[in-house]
Design goal:
- It is an enzyme of class 3 (hydrolase).
- It is found in: Cytoplasm.
- It catalyses: Exonucleolytic cleavage in the 3'- to 5'-direction to yield nucleoside 5'-phosphates.
- Helix content is about 25%, strand content about 25%.
- The protein is of the alpha+beta class.
- Helix 4 packs antiparallel against helix 16 (about 640-670) and helix 10 (about 490-515) crosses helix 14.
- It starts with about 40 loop residues before the first helix and ends in a 17-residue tail after the last helix.
- The protein has six domains: about 45-95, no CATH class; about 105-140 and about 150-185, OB fold (Dihydrolipoamide Acetyltransferase, E2P) (Beta Barrel), CATH 2.40.50.140; about 190-255, OB fold (Dihydrolipoamide Acetyltransferase, E2P) (Beta Barrel), CATH 2.40.50.700; about 280-520 and about 590-655, no CATH class; about 530-580, no CATH class; about 670-770, Beta Barrel (OB fold (Dihydrolipoamide Acetyltransferase, E2P)), CATH 2.40.50.140.
Length: about 800
């Protein structure tokens, strides 16, 4: 298991080819060359225009868009024919589209919603050889009238089949396309999931698994094969004006009491593929160990893996030595070797299609849903100790100041000298070696730690964003329930591997840019101006300033974090800085990585568990002439879609992982209703307070109506709720005592009651409170109102 660094810390150029495919100069950030009206555009400009304007991609519209007449139209026709013969474009009715792209008009099935509640659809018909069908965001009309002002605009819902006009997406990180509904072809009431509970006299109830879900009645004729305690998928059979909605069981997922049932809820709720098709399993089972073809023999190099103690796949290995060159006194050579997944998973294969469909492995406390079958991930590609394994390696040279002086990539055959855990390697360095690490200490481990110290000088100079947000880990009992929640120590061994992986990722991006090869970058935009302003107003209440406008850098936030360190506001400031950040995504267009403070960054180090890394491996193999398994023109042509898809799948995985942890913790605490806990205010809203139990990492809600008899006013800038009469209130980061009032395990929801008295608010908060009262714009519901339905 490797990392971006390890886990997720969020957080182009075309290969030279026939007739000079599109290319950017190294470091350029312009998406395409300027259009000269009346002149036949270069190939890359034409291809980009077709991708971005599918509704104007007929020959006539293209000629009109570029102002071509006479002989230029003939040249355009010849160029389009040439591109079609090369497979760079294909016909769709009267228009041209990029291979793997959606046509201007398509039939879509609405299958899910994104985190903001927007409907997401996928094409009804999609060739299997093109991989996973692209996601499309459905734009519903905000007007009751149609586009021509007559009649009603069509409205669609979950499960509907629609005819839609397709547009390339404008926003990065979401689906690659958006769509406007032309008409609804077929309506179907939405399917949902819950737990079936029998009721006396036959039939039963559906208990919701979503926080905003509601119970449903299931009549005896509609229970199918469901038994008490089964996780089932249902559709709404009837919605009456009174009483609970009625539902019909469509399928039985399995018993909710069975092993690993909690993670299965998230897997099914988010539509995460978890069963490999027979074709993919067949390819994996038939795979043979890699040969020495196009490989250098590095089996004598003392590369070792350092991973969590329970890791089953090992896709990165490292070693280091002093640079013997007299031109680099005090410098080091660091070698990072990464499993050569591209040798086994070829473009367009069943394994490749399934890997793209998954996008990444998903890690739950009780299971892993892998991107690749175990035959590949845990066997042929895993860098096992003492076993020959194929790899892509990068050898990097650093000066004694930690500046990278150069690097080279190699396709190799290696043999891991040892498999160590983080704790094992750290203990050896700390003077407590065991029988395995003792002989390795001088020749292998100490050179690695020395190299890390050298690289750390460069990291300290670069100043990436250094948030202090402890990551909690859940330890389960054999029966799948929670044993304990703890924060594992952050060791230098973790930081060593993290920094070496980051530098390997940088080297991959730099090499591909130098080769003028298109790739998928890992990009991280800076905070938006709106988020900066919210953070700036909040920090001002603590007497901390934030630079304005485009001058914000990662080290600007580090200065803020340093000022808050050791104060009562430390946790609160870290959380607010985190909230201000954008989300890292994948894109073929580079804008740099704000959080890491790097201009060129691409994921290369985890191809077993991330599809983005596999694409980068293929790009390196192809552009460096490393033999079989390189990137294909078809892949190059669809990198925009692939990047959007895997960014979406990454968010899907993160949501599923988070919800599973919430459900496990709620199950763990369900027997402790009425008990008191020490908590911290982790969120302030108009509706109430979100509180976190530090010992469990669990979040719960306190409705504003239960805070007391005072009239509370919400202050977004100060992240506070303040009582109108008393001036006492609660603020983000406050330590409080709460009582657990309700736990809903299936929904992962906790509701608390506040036991602590509010504290006196600072002067700035009281001033806001008075101004709000003067303007008569209090932002809260009156005491005694019903608590919000979604967070009970």
């Amino acid at each position: 298991m490797s990392r971006e660094p390890r886990g997720r810390i969020s957080s182009s150029e075309r290969r030279p080819g026939k007739a000079g495919r599109a290319a950017k100069n190294s470091g350029d950030q312009e998406p395409m060359m300027a259009i000269v009206h009346g002149v036949l555009p270069p190939r890359e400009v034409l291809l980009r225009f077709i991708a971005d304007h599918p509704q104007q991609a007929s020959k006539r519209e293209l000629a009109k868009a570029f102002g071509l007449k006479g002989e230029s139209r003939v040249e355009l026709k010849n160029l389009l024919r040439e591109l079609e013969e090369e497979g760079m474009v294909q016909k769709s009715r009267k228009s041209l589209i990029r291979p793997g792209a959606l046509p201007p008009i398509a039939v879509l099935d609405i299958t899910t919603r994104d985190k903001d509640g927007e409907l997401i659809g996928r094409p009804t018909e999609w060739p299997e050889e093109n991989g996973v069908a692209p996601a499309v965001m459905i734009k519903q009309s905000s007007s009751p009238a149609g586009r021509n002002g007559k009649g009603k605009a069509p409205v669609a819902g979950m499960g509907d089949r629609i005819l839609a006009k397709i547009f390339p997406a404008v926003d990065r990180g979401g689906p690659a396309y958006s769509a406007r509904i032309i008409r609804v072809i077929d309506k179907r009431l939405a399917a949902t999931m819950g737990v079936f509970r029998e009721t006396p006299g036959g039939g039963g109830r559906l208990m919701p698994i979503e926080r905003r879900g509601e119970e449903m009645v299931i009549d005896p004729d509609y229970i199918g094969d469901a038994k008490d305690g089964d996780l089932v998928e249902v559709e709404v059979a009837r919605l009456g004006r009174f009483g609970l909605p009625r539902a019909k069981v469509l399928s039985v997922v399995g018993s909710v009491a069975s092993e690993k049932a909690i993670s299965m809820i998230a897997i099914h709720a988010h539509g995460i593929p978890h069963v490999f098709p027979a074709a993919a399993i067949g390819e994996a089972d038939a795979a043979k160990p890699a040969t020495m073809s196009h490989r250098e023999d590095w089996r004598s190099l003392p590369l070792i893996t350092i991973d969590p103690a329970d890791a089953k796949d090992h896709d990165d290995a490292v070693c280091a030595e002093l640079d013997p060159s007299p031109d680099n006194p005090g410098g080091v050579i660091v070698t990072v070797a990464i499993a050569d997944v591209s040798w086994y998973v070829r473009p367009g294969s069943a394994l490749d299609r399934e890997a793209l469909k998954r996008g990444n492995s998903v890690y739950f406390p009780d299971r892993v849903v892998p991107m690749l079958p175990e035959r590949i991930s845990n066997d042929l590609c895993s860098l096992k100790e003492g076993v020959d394994r194929p790899a892509l390696a990068v050898r990097m040279i650093f000066s004694k100041e930690g500046r990278k002086a150069g690097h080279t990539f190699h396709r190799i055959m290696m043999k891991s000298a040892a498999k160590l855990s983080y704790q094992q390697a750290q203990a050896a360095i700390d003077g407590k070696p065991d029988d395995k690490t003792g002989p390795m200490l001088e020749p292998i481990l100490k050179p690695l730690w020395h190299a890390y110290e050298v690289m750390k000088r460069g990291r300290d100079r670069r100043q990436p964003l250094e948030l202090d947000m402890p990551e909690r880990k859940i330890l389960l009992k054999p029966d799948g329930t929670v044993d304990r929640v703890f924060v594992p120590p952050r060791l230098d061994a973790h930081k060593l591997i993290e920094e070496m992986m980051i530098q390997a990722n940088v080297a991959a991006a730099e090499t591909l840019e130098k080769k003028r090869q298109v790739l998928i970058y890992r990009i991280h935009d800076g905070p938006t101006l709106a988020k900066q302003e919210v953070l700036r107003e909040f920090l001002a209440t603590l007497g901390i300033s934030l630079v304005k406008g485009g001058n914000v850098r990662a080290n600007s936030f580090n200065g803020i974090l340093a000022k808050a360190e050791g104060t009562a506001h430390q946790t609160m400031v870290n959380e607010m800085v985190l909230r201000s950040q954008s989300q890292a995504i994948y894109s073929p267009d580079n804008i740099g990585h704000f959080g890491l403070n790097l201009m060129k960054y691409a994921h290369f180090t985890s191809p077993i568990r991330r599809y983005a890394d596999l694409i980068v491996h293929r790009a390196l193999v192809g552009s460096l002439g490393f033999g079989e398994g390189g990137i294909t023109p078809d892949e190059e042509a669809t990198l925009d879609d692939i990047a959007a898809e895997i960014s979406t799948f990454e968010r899907r995985a993160m949501a599923a992982e988070r919800e599973t942890v919430d459900r496990l913790i709620a199950h763990h605490l369900v027997g402790r209703i009425g008990e008191e806990f020490e908590a911290r205010v982790g969120g302030v809203t108009k509706s109430g307070l979100f509180v976190t139990l530090p010992d469990y990492g669990a979040d719960g809600f306190i409705p504003i109506s239960t805070l007391g008899s005072d009239y509370f006013i919400y202050d977004e800038a100060h992240q506070a709720l303040t009582g109108e009469k008393t001036g006492l209130g609660f603020r983000l980061g406050d330590s409080v005592t709460v009582r657990l009032a309700e736990a809903i395990p299936l929904a992962g929801a906790l509701r608390f009651e506040m036991l602590s008295d509010g504290r006196a608010m600072p002067t700035a908060v009281r001033s806001f409170h008075k101004a709000t009262r003067r303007n008569k714009t209090p932002a809260r519901k009156a005491p005694g109102t019903r608590p919000p339905r979604g967070r009970r």
